[in-house]
Amino acid sequence: MTSHHFSIEFFPPKSFEASERLRDVRQRLGSLSPEYFSVTQGAGGSERTGHHDLAVEIHQDGLSVAPHVTCIGTSRSMIREQIMEYRALGIRHLVALRGDLPKQAITPGDFSYANELVEFVRSETGDWFHIIVAAYPETHPQAKSPQDDLDNFVRKVHAGSDAAITQYFYNPDAYFHFADNVQRAGVDVPVIAGIMPVTNYASLARFSDACGAEIPRWIRLKLESYGDDLDSIRKFGLDVVTQQCERLLDGGAPGFHFYSLNQAAPVEALLERLQASGYRA
Fold it and tell me: Do the Cβ atoms of 258 and 8 come closer than 8 Å?
């Protein structure tokens, strides 16, 4: 059976207690041997210290890490310092992003788009880093059009990207349509499907509305019908996301990137279900 990629995303904890919890989560999920753990940055590069410290800690634990590097509002010297430190430590993966615009005003910086960041990292470090970029099967919320969004993605790949991770989605057809368009554009990099476990409907709906990820109406209505019954929400969510992953694998998706929300149990449950149905990481 063909083996597939899987990786897991964390965000920097905001307290000592959250850091301790995340160490336990990391140990549990690390035992599953993901290809890497990615570590997010906040809008405009905020949480830079927490992001850096978490990425370094994961690496020093002997686990593969892919720190997010966001370029909006930064300078070439800032990015150079960041990536050269990661290189000196022996970190081999980066997730290269434009980054979200923060609510407060920032100076424009030296970079406007992620493809410029990818080009810069390649010019500074050659082939040292495995560079991963973002993809949007349902179109980036700030894109002028789906075609414009696809053109942006192609530019990032041509700039030197090795792979892509998608925004999470619950409609596999959107992923397949995007993957077909990428192929037709002559781009040949793995497009890893971003997977968000369903654990809390209210926060998921709020976040999805903000980032442009569609929750299909039938799923929304079913989740809404459970009210505050978190156990039923999680059971239904596990069924839906497992079926989504199985369909993605059947359709040729090369693997998954799990948005863990710094929790172990939802990712463990999903992988257990998938392995029972023949998935091999």
Answer: yes
Going along the chain from its start, the domains and CATH numbers come out as: 5-276 (3.20.20.220)
Q: Are 12 and 51 in contact (CB under 8 A)?
A: yes
CB < 8 Å & 24+ apart, contacts of 48-51: 50/12, 50/13, 50/14, 51/12
The tokens describing 252, both together, are 């040729």
Per-residue pLDDT of the chain (281 residues; tens, 9 = 90+): 356 899 999 999 999 999 999 999 999 999 999 999 999 986 555 456 789 999 999 999 999 999 999 999 899 999 999 999 999 999 999 999 998 766 665 677 899 999 999 999 999 999 999 999 999 999 999 899 999 999 999 999 999 999 999 999 999 999 999 999 999 999 999 999 999 999 999 999 999 988 889 999 999 999 999 999 999 999 999 999 999 999 999 999 999 999 999 999 999 999 999 998 888 77
Eight-class DSSP state of 101: P
Cβ–Cβ < 8 Å for 10, 262: yes
DSSP state of 95: E
DSSP category for residue 170: S
Residue type, 31: S
**In degrees rounded to 5, what are phi and psi of residue 9?**
-105, 140
Q: Which of the residues are catalytic?
A: 9
User: Would you state the structure tokens that stand for residue 205, as one six-digit string?
Assistant: 């709906």
pTM of the model: 0.94
Are 92 and 129 in contact by the 8 Å Cβ rule? The answer is yes
Query: d(Cα 108, Cα 85) in Å, to the nearest integer?
Result: 24
Given a contact cutoff of 8 angstroms between Cβ atoms, the answer to whether 198 and 235 are in contact is: no
Q: Are 224 and 201 contacting, i.e. CB atoms less than 8 angstroms apart?
A: yes
